[in-house]
Amino acid sequence: MNYSKMPKIELHCHLDGSVRPETIIDLAKKDGIHIPSFDREEMRGELIAPLDCESLDEYLEKFSIPNDVMQSKENLKRITFELYEDASGENVKYMEVRFAPLLHTRKGLSVEEIIESVIEGMKEAEEQFDIKGNIILCCMRTMSPESAFEVVEKGKNFLGKGVVAIDLCASEEEGFCREFIEPIALAREYGYRVTIHAGETGIGRNVLEAVEWLGAERIGHGVYITDCPEAYQVVKEKGIVLEICPTSNVQTKAVEEFRDHPLYDFHRDGIKITINTDNRTVSDTTMTKECELVWGEFAMNEEDYRAIYMNSVEAAFASDEVKAGLRRYL
Fold first, then answer.
1. CA separation for the pair 1, 55 (Å, rounded)
2. Are 147 and 184 in contact (CB under 8 A)?
């Protein structure tokens, strides 16, 4: 199969992990921001996490430089537009981009201004390219539950206008869900859909708690349900969709090597998986690369492709009209 030409859907992609190196250089020059290098290849080296990362925390260190240039409305809009432009160039037809608004308040932007700028970049790309999108707001697990309440409250006015869901991300500690039960419950009450990063770094029980305590409809990664039979069963029985990010999972040591990834075993056993990049720049990847990797490593066929694509359609936090259009591509 020519994966570059196949229609694709991406449900798990971080804005600050997917900034073009040349854009970082351009914006740093414009705004007088210090960065390690103004050479594109050297900057790529600063932004890309190696496959032999020791942990998720080491992987997350690569986000500091992009965030330095993501502190103005113009820059946020441009970076979002370019991400959708890049995705459309490899025939991604629908993409949900997630980001943490509170990481972009350093120079005085309000949370509302930040969210609005990202939506504007997405909408402008939708007008120019054959791609549809939505935005997921991330709350940081390294911040207080009060900060999550702030994101939920200030983002609610954008529901139905580009924002569709809430997420919890950052370094994963055992039992993190307990601390965020109330803000995520409020988010559900307001109408946010829920996807939660869990089971990425060896704690399968976090997936169980994300589903049962937070009402997660999708799980970011979820690799370690293999180590928690209860989590595995709940994910399978409730049809919870896993947002699998193969290259990222090797980098963060969710799995040691690509061939060790349980994604194909999940798929064969009826667990609904989707394939995603996680972070296009930090993981030096695209949806085309991820598809080539997965279908090559596990000798999957066109029926597998169709099944996983349709998993993505059904799991998307998109309107019925958009979903109908996505089904027609196959």
1. 33
2. no
Residue 140 β-bridge partners: 169
> What's the CA gap between 220 and 285, in Å, rounded?
17
Average pLDDT over residues 229-234: 98
Does pTM surpass 0.90? Answer: yes
Q: pLDDT of 272-281, one tens digit each?
A: 999 999 999 9
CA nearest neighbour of 274 among 235, 320, 313, 228: 313
The H or E element that residue 208 is part of is helix 205-212
- What's the one-letter identity of residue 113? E
With left for phi above 0 and alpha for psi between -120 and 50, is residue 239 left, alpha or beta? Answer: left
User: Any idea which residue has 């969710």 for tokens?
Assistant: 254
The catalytic residues are 200
pLDDT of residue 55: 77
Q: Partners of 243 in the beta sheet?
A: 220, 274
Rounded CA separation 330/328 (Å): 5
| 46, two tokens | 């600063």
Domains within the chain, CATH numbers bracketed: 8-328 (3.20.20.140)
The pLDDT score that the predictor gives to residue 228 is 97
Say if residue 221's pLDDT is above 80.
yes
Per the structure block, which two tokens stand in for 216? 């997660």
Q: Hey, what amino acid is at 268?
A: R
In the numeric block, the tokens 């994910």 are attached to: 235
- How far apart (Å, rounded) are the C-alpha atoms in residues 41 and 52? 20
Nearest C-alpha neighbor of 226 from the set 269, 190, 197: 269
Quote the Cα angle for 48-52-56, to 5°: 75
Length in residues, the chain = 330
Residue 297 contacts residue 275 (beta carbons within 8 Å): no
pLDDT score of 330: 86
> Taking a C-beta distance cutoff of 8 angstroms, is the pair 201, 179 a contact?
no
Question: DSSP letter at 174?
Answer: T
Q: Which amino acid is at 198?
A: A
